Amino acid sequence: MRLLQDRRAALGFSLGFLLVLGYVDYVTAFEFDVFLFYALPVAITAWFVGRVAGVLTALASVAVWFCANMLWTHPYSWWFYTYWNTGIQCGWILIVALTVSHIREDLERQRRLNEQLAEALNQVKQLSGLLPICAWCKSVRNDEGYWEEVEEYISKHTNAQFTHGICPACRMAQFMDRKQDQH
User: Fold this and answer.
1) What pLDDT was estimated at residue 4?
2) Nearest Cα to 15, choosing from 51, 56, 70, 47?
């Protein structure tokens, strides 16, 4: 299998296998159909080399099958059947090439997405567990036992950044306190 990781080696293996199949197909004549096995070199090429090479190997396999079929002088009752059968063989072997290459591309895409997801998960900082916080001033006790402002603690342990504003309830309370101070 390691040999097939090299694109040229995979293509060479597939084409050699295709020629052997053509020879076996020719020798056994029409009595022993081996066309199903033509899918193997097509699938190997589509998987290890790519879609275009898989399609070209599919067309080559149909050509080899057609030549073996013509050399047998297979007794078809009408000339049209030779081309009809060749078209049918071409159609299904192209489906094999396209399907195998599509599956390979999908698996590769999924592998890349999994790598990106793992990288993103490594970058995520998350707080968990109990967080000791002062009920009065809202300072947080850190792992060393020191108290620090909640903003500082959270900034150290997450990627969060803070902006400050006044919520409507506090704004109203401040307004009421100031109003009482003026009277």
Assistant:
1) 63
2) 56
